[in-house]
Design brief:
Shape: globular
Order of helices and strands: HHHHHHHHHHHHHHHHHH
Number of helices: 18
Low-confidence stretches: none
Number of strands: 0
Structural class: mainly alpha
Helix content: over 70%
Length: about 450
C-alpha cells in the first residue's frame, strides 16, 4: 500500500508537466497569432509537423527507459536529469525575441520542437513510473487519481493565473507579460519534478529477458488488443482536446467579446474537473471502468456540442454547460491511465514480456499526434473562415470559431467514447492476471497467458 506522501509526490510531477502543457494548449496558439505575429495556417502546420516529428521519439524513449538500469531505477533518472531542460524550453517558447518574420517562424519551430522533446524525456518515464510503483491494480487506480487531481490543479493554476499574471508583469505589453509569467511557471515546475524524483520508488522489477528485442517488443505491443483500443481512443480524445483548448481563448476574445471572462470560466471549469476526478472512487463503486469511460466521455461530448446553440453573451448558460461537462469527464483521465497500466500487465501475462515504458510511450505518441491534428485543424479552419488577429471578426469567422469550439470537438468526443466500446479487458481478468503474475514472480511455473 503506497503512502499518501508518495502518491502526492507522484501527483506533483503532473502538476509540473501541466504548468507547461496547459499553457501551451490554451495560450500558445493565440500567442503565436495575436502577439508573436505568425499566420494561423503557418502555426497550425508548424504544430502538426513539430509534434509528429517529436512523437516519433516517444516509442524510442519508452524503449530506452525499459532498458535503463541505474541505482534510481528505470524511469526516475529521466525525471531527475530532464527537469531543468524541460523548464528552460518552456520559458524559451514565450521569450519573444526581436526577429524578422521568417526568423520568428524558425524560432517558433526550434523552441516548440525542443520543448516537446524535453517533455517527452520527462513525461513518458513519469507516466510509466506509475506502472512499477505498485503491482496492485487498485493501488495504481488510486495513484492515477492522485496524479490527475494534481494535474488538474496545475491546469487550474494556468486558467486562474495566466491572464492576470500576464497583465501584471506586462503592464499592457502582452509579449513581456507572457514571457515573465512563463518564467515563473517554469521555475515552479522544475522544483516539483525534483520533489517527485526524490519521494517516489520503483518496486515492480521485471525479470531479465536475454531474448528481448525491439522487434519482439513492437510485435507484442501491436498484438495487445486492449492497448490498441486505448491507443485509438487516446488519439481521438486528444484531437478533441487540441482543437477545443486552442480555440477557447479565441471564442472568448472574439465571440464573447471579453477575453478576461475566460479566467473565471476556465477556473470554474477546472474546479469542476478536479471535483470529478476526486469523485472517481464514488463512480467506481457503481460502475466498472469501461462503462464509465463510455458514458462520461459521451456526456462531455454532448455538452461541448451544446455550446454551439447558446448565445455567447449568455455567460451564466456557458458556465452551467461547462461545469456539467467538465465534471462528467473529470474521472476519465485517472481511469484511462490505470487501464494503460493494466494493458502493460496484460502484455506481461499474455506474452511473458513486460514493456511498461513502451506501452506508455506509445500512448503518449497517440496523444501528441491527436493534439497536433487538433491544432492543425484549428489553424486551417481559422484561415478558411478569413480570421484576422486583433480586429472585429466577420460573421463567417465568428461562426468558424464557434464550430471549432463546440460541434467539432463534440463530434470527435463521441467517436472516442465509441472506441472504448471495444475495450474487453474486464476486472475479473485483471484480478486473474495479478494473481498469476504474482505467482510467477514467487517462482511458480505458470506459462504466459494461462
Amino acid at each position: 500500500m503506497l503512502s499518501f506522501k508518495e502518491k502526492f509526490a507522484y501527483g506533483l510531477g503532473d502538476t509540473a508537466c501541466n504548468l507547461t502543457f496547459q499553457t501551451v494548449n490554451l495560450f500558445l496558439f493565440i500567442y503565436y497569432t495575436d502577439v508573436f505575429g505568425l499566420p494561423a495556417a503557418a502555426v497550425g502546420t508548424m504544430v502538426l509537423v513539430a509534434r509528429v516529428l517529436d512523437a516519433v521519439l516517444d516509442p524510442l524513449t519508452g524503449i530506452i527507459a525499459d532498458r535503463t538500469q541505474s541505482r534510481w531505477g528505470k524511469f526516475r533518472p529521466f525525471i531527475l536529469f530532464g527537469a531543468i531542460p524541460f523548464g528552460l524550453c518552456g520559458y524559451l517558447m514565450f521569450s519573444n525575441p526581436a526577429l524578422s518574420q521568417p526568423g520568428k517562424l524558425i524560432f517558433a519551430y526550434a523552441t516548440y520542437i525542443m520543448m516537446w522533446i524535453a517533455y517527452t524525456v520527462v513525461n513518458i518515464p513519469y507516466s510509466a513510473l506509475m506502472g512499477v510503483m505498485s503491482a496492485s491494480s487498485a493501488d495504481r487506480t488510486s495513484l492515477s487519481t492522485f496524479r490527475f487531481v494534481c494535474a488538474f490543479s496545475g491546469g487550474l493554476a494556468i486558467n486562474a493565473l495566466t491572464l492576470p499574471l500576464r497583465d501584471y508583469f506586462g503592464g499592457g505589453d502582452a509579449a513581456t507579460g507572457y514571457k515573465y509569467t512563463m518564467a515563473v511557471f517554469s521555475v515552479i515546475s522544475v522544483a516539483m519534478l525534483l520533489f517527485t524524483f526524490s519521494q517516489t520508488r520503483e518496486r515492480v522489477v521485471p525479470a531479465p529477458d536475454p531474448e528481448a528485442s525491439l522487434g519482439k517488443d513492437l510485435k507484442y505491443l501491436f498484438s495487445n488488443g486492449p492497448w490498441l483500443v486505448l491507443f485509438f481512443a487516446a488519439f481521438l480524445t486528444l484531437t478533441n482536446v487540441g482543437v477545443r483548448n486552442a480555440a477557447i481563448i479565441y471564442y472568448f476574445k472574439y465571440n464573447v467579446g471579453d477575453e478576461s471572462k475566460f479566467t473565471l470560466f476556465g477556473t470554474i471549469g477546472t474546479i469542476a474537473f478536479i471535483a470529478g476526478a476526486i469523485a472517481t472512487p464514488v463512480f467506481l463503486k457503481f460502475f466498472n471502468r469501461r462503462a464509465l469511460m463510455i458514458g462520461l466521455t459521451s456526456i462531455n461530448a454532448v455538452f461541448m456540442s451544446a455550446f454551439f446553440f447558446v448565445d455567447p453573451k449568455s455567460i451564466l448558460t456557458l458556465h452551467i454547460l461547462n461545469i456539467i461537462g467538465t465534471f462528467a469527464v473529470g474521472p476519465t483521465p485517472a481511469i484511462v491511465w490505470s487501464l494503460y497500466a493494466d494493458t502493460a500487465d496484460y502484455g506481461a501475462w499474455k506474452f511473458g514480456r513486460r514493456t511498461t515504458g513502451l506501452v506508455f510511450a506509445a500512448a503518449v505518441f497517440a496523444q501528441k499526434v491527436g493534439l497536433a491534428v487538433g491544432s492543425f485543424m484549428l489553424g486551417w479552419i481559422l484561415t478558411i473562415v478569413d480570421f484576422a488577429p486583433n480586429v472585429a471578426q466577420t460573421p463567417r469567422s465568428l461562426l468558424g470559431i464557434k464550430i471549432v469550439f463546440s460541434l467539432l470537438p463534440g463530434a470527435i468526443g463521441l467517436l472516442s467514447g465509441l472506441a472504448i466500446f471495444f475495450y474487453r479487458l474486464d476486472d475479473s481478468t485483471v484480478k486473474q492476471m495479478e494473481a498469476e503474475l504474482a505467482a510467477r514472480k514467487a517462482g511458480q511455473t505458470l506459462p504466459a497467458g494461462t
